[in-house]
Design goal:
Structural class: alpha+beta
Order of helices and strands: EEHEEEEHEEEHHEHEHEEHEHHHEEHH
Radius of gyration: 34 Å
Number of strands: 16
Number of helices: 12
Largest sheet: 7 strands, antiparallel
Bound molecules: S-adenosylmethionine
Distance between the termini: 104 Å
CATH architecture of the largest domain: 3-Layer(aba) Sandwich
Strand order of the largest sheet: 6-5-4-3-7-8-9
CATH superfamily of the largest domain: Vaccinia Virus protein VP39
Length: about 450
């Protein structure tokens, strides 16, 4: 007695090896034994193939999986290629759906992707080829409806297999061939960044990346003279000079102003050795430095009111761009503590850490308002992730083409007055330097 059966068993092995569909036609019950053997061989081949995919992915031998001989409903689809990629460091399977006129790429987590590939294979494709670094495994549904598995050795073994899809981000300041980076102890002679200098190197690049679009708002003619107040060991001063003169190829003069004589001498020596002819360092204070003609003024981590001194100098010079990353905020903190004023925020400021944070925000918020008062468009942004340093705020003032109108100036003064009253602040150092009547 003939019996026609269509079997599509689902096999669940574990989360990695998900499901498979087996399609087989049984012709006669009398052929029972033979049919059972066919099912078992088919099932075995299927499992072997799926396990081969899974294992090669786990062991890092997976090169490619292709699904061919499409027999589904989409008249445009030809085949599918699956690659293993890392996207933002997460292992994924990247499917390229190859249509007659275009390719579509979709990425899936590895387990989900493998399960999808096997599902697609069971429904719409008659052949799948798994390529690993040392062999090819071919699973085919032949004309007789049997699932056969063939293995082929591969002659050429790729030396290394990299799945990285995340293109390494090109650094704005390349490490190779930079004498100053070596002399500052960031790289060795061959341009390898020392392990303990990775953060510093990242910080230099990140800082340039933040400043770059702000600088590019101006033309080369507008940015001729740059001053770095409290330049310290000059990491960022050198980086900025390198960027302006070697990346942007602008003709600029860059000056570092630093209190410590030893650092000034060191930086000048390195500048000479690097043939950075328009980069110089001066020993002196921010307060006394003659800033006439300064177009871009920066001050990174100048302590407490030294940041106010720097902003004041920038405003005084009429600099087009002022960028400061403040350090500690003692002056305003002392003011708040001294007044002991009770307000709606006292429940927070009774804790030292919150008082610290509040003093920081008030100091910098008032600085931003004062910049605006003097015709600057002020921005406050994260300078660098606080993984690297807790001093991670950058205040930027870009000189706008028109002065802040009187109405807005009056409103700013009134707002500053209210802030002072609310927090019990007698004065803000910057307000004093600028002789603002608040
Ligand atoms: C924390 S370091 C920052 C150095 C550098 N800007 C950086 O970010 O790598 C602050 C530097 O500012 C200098 N400095 C502090 N107050 C200053 C002042 N009033 N005039 C000039 N330099 C000052 C210090 O000597 C120190 O080298």
């Amino acid at each position: 007695m003939n019996l026609l059966l269509k079997l599509q068993p689902k096999l669940k092995r574990n989360s990695q090896i998900a499901s498979y569909n087996l399609f087989i036609t049984l012709v006669s019950i009398d052929w029972g034994f033979l049919i059972l053997m066919i099912i078992m061989i088919d099932r075995d081949n299927w499992i072997k193939f799926e396990a081969g995919c899974s294992l090669s992915l786990t062991e890092g031998h997976f090169v490619k999986l292709s699904l061919g001989n499409y027999c589904g409903d989409d008249p445009e689809l030809k085949n599918i290629y699956v690659k293993r990629v890392d996207i933002r460091k997460i292992p994924m399977l990247s499917f390229t759906y190859r249509y007659k006129r275009r390719d579509i790429i979709k990425n899936y987590p590895v387990d989900e992707g493998l399960s999808m590939a096997m599902d697609l294979l069971s429904k719409d494709f008659r052949i799948a080829t798994l390529i690993t670094i040392d062999k090819e495994l071919i699973l085919e549904l032949n004309r007789e409806g049997k699932i056969v598995l063939r293995t082929k050795g591969r002659q050429r073994r790729p030396e290394t297999l990299t799945y990285s899809h995340d293109r390494p981000k090109a650094k704005t300041i390349e490490a190779i061939g930079k004498r100053y980076l070596t002399d500052l102890g960031i790289t060795d002679e061959r341009g390898n960044v020392f392990r303990n200098a990775q953060d510093k190197y990242k910080q230099i690049n990140h800082y340039i990346e933040i400043l770059s679009p702000l600088i590019k708002d101006f033309s080369q003619e507008q940015i001729r003279k740059v001053v770095d107040m409290g330049s310290g060991k000059g990491y960022l001063t050198f980086g900025l000079y390198d960027y302006l003169s070697n990346v942007l190829r602008w003709n600029v003069e860059v000056l570092g102003v630093e209190l410590r004589e030893d650092l000034v001498s060191l930086c000048n020596e390195i500048a000479v050795k690097s043939e950075f002819n328009d980069l110089r360092f001066f020993q002196g204070t921010i307060e006394q430095h003659d800033v006439r003609g300064t177009d871009l003024l920066i001050a990174l981590h100048a302590c407490d009111t030294a940041t106010d001194d720097a902003i004041f100098k920038g405003i005084e010079a009429g600099a087009k761009l002022i960028a400061v990353a403040p350090c500690c905020h003692k002056q305003i903190r002392k003011e708040i503590e001294k007044s002991k004023i009770e307000n709606d925020l006292s429940f927070l400021t009774r804790y030292g850490i919150f008082l610290e944070r509040q003093a920081e925000m008030i100091t910098d918020g008032m600085r931003a308002l004062i910049l605006e008062y003097f015709g600057y468009k002020a921005k406050v942004m994260e300078f660098i992730s606080d993984v690297h340093t807790p001093k991670n705020v950058l205040i930027v003032g870009s000189k706008s083409s028109k002065m802040t109108n009187e109405h807005r100036q009056r409103a700013i003064l009134s707002q500053l007055r209210d802030i002072k009253v609310f927090f019990g602040i007698q004065y803000h150092h910057l307000e004093r330097l600028l002789k603002l009547e608040i």
